[in-house]
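W.,

You were right to be curious about this one. When I first looked at the sequence I had no strong expectations either way, so I just let the prediction run and decided to look at it fresh. Below is the sequence, 173 residues in total, followed by the output.
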Amino acid sequence: MPKITTQQLRKRTQASAATAAIKPQTIGAPYVKHGSKPATKGGSADGSRHFGPMFNKDLGQHILINPLVSQGIVDKAHLKQTDTVLEVGPGTGNLTIKILEQAKKVIACEADVRLAAELTKRVQGGPFQHKLEILHGDVMKRDLPFFDVCISNTPYQISSPLTFKLIFHRPIF
């Protein structure tokens, strides 16, 4: 089998991309010919379309979208109707909604103001509005409130520090 260098591979990739009639796109985006602007509002110049807020990977933001995974996390927590749940990094609220269905109260700590607003908008006017409290800011720089259970789709960058913070947490009654 002939060997190929990284530089040769790059040249071949660029050449094949230049000859392609249609550029790869984000799921759900309309097909846009290479070099043209997207036909829909909210599209970007590369032809991809983003739904909702842009995520900041520097903050470790990743969104849990699979409802079976969300339900599995909540089921494994064995929540009771009397539990107050601390959720770190609720994002757009896919896991939060599942928790709200089973817990007495959810205290969600979100560092990104945009995502906190998205979560507020999602529960506003619904049956869970009174059960949700959102704390804005970095959970690592604040005192934790009283809670019974912590459920989190933890941002990667804070997984170890958060674990130690939870271990040494002394609840204030």
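Here's what jumped out at me. The first helix runs from residue 6 to 19. And, maybe more interesting for your project: The chain is about 30% helix and 10% strand.

Coffee later to discuss?

I.
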